[in-house]
């Protein structure tokens, strides 16, 4: 958001998405207002600000109505009291803007995280209808296991070779993170093929899923990928290639996830799964090699209590490199 025209472009794109999804005129206007506020704040006050918009399925209870995800992030200056800026009528600029409070009020779900000197992240989801607020004035989060991800192409590329997907199961969820080899359209093609195979598969067993993915990518350039299943208090994991992952619970040592060497679609001498016990409120973070393995929750344990979309944005902002595609997937155990 280095130019004010970018805020207008974000608003127009949000309007196009809302219209295509069948939002009525009033709801489309609300989405446009919220996106404009977020984008304008980034341009006026932030360093390295960016807004991501995408279509998502809500997966809130039994609802599968489409929604628009909006993620705004920056690298500073950050806010001392984010909650104060989320109150209606207070603009983050002290100007005539509608303020972040209106974004909270208009969103279906909302979460934000800010650290002075490090920056601010806001994640808002806009469904066809608004959702009832919880006791602290923010839209109530979904119950049960939840997950979110974020990807970013390397500098100079439009297509991203990293991709993720999440689908619910009767007792939890199963998720995929994929890194197509190289970058550009061919890498993106391999990643999207993996997402298609994953979503079409009926099984939830991670070994069977990884085997299916390996076979399904045989006519692509290949990929590193990992499949995760959360079922109650157990996480099952199977990976091929350079996908890093760990489970973090406040007050306990982190557990690193084990991937086997290989390239899905071309080389997989051993496909093996591993099981890990999950503590309540455990947060599992997977990322591709476009994110530094040195990234940790050290110094920002409060992130463990945030929405997975906010966590994913933080990992990408703080650990992602611009020299490669980067992808992050975050899964939270049921509270």
From TrEMBL:
Pfam families linked: HATPase_c_2, SpoIIE
InterPro entries: HATPase_C_sf (IPR036890), HATPase_dom (IPR003594), PPM-type-like_dom_sf (IPR036457), PPM-type_phosphatase-like_dom (IPR001932), Ptase_RsbX (IPR039248)
Residues of the PPM-type phosphatase domain: 145-333
Gene3D superfamilies: Histidine kinase-like ATPase, C-terminal domain, PPM-type phosphatase domain
PANTHER family the UniProt entry points to: PHOSPHOSERINE PHOSPHATASE RSBX (PTHR35801:SF1)
Protein name according to UniProt: SpoIIE family protein phosphatase
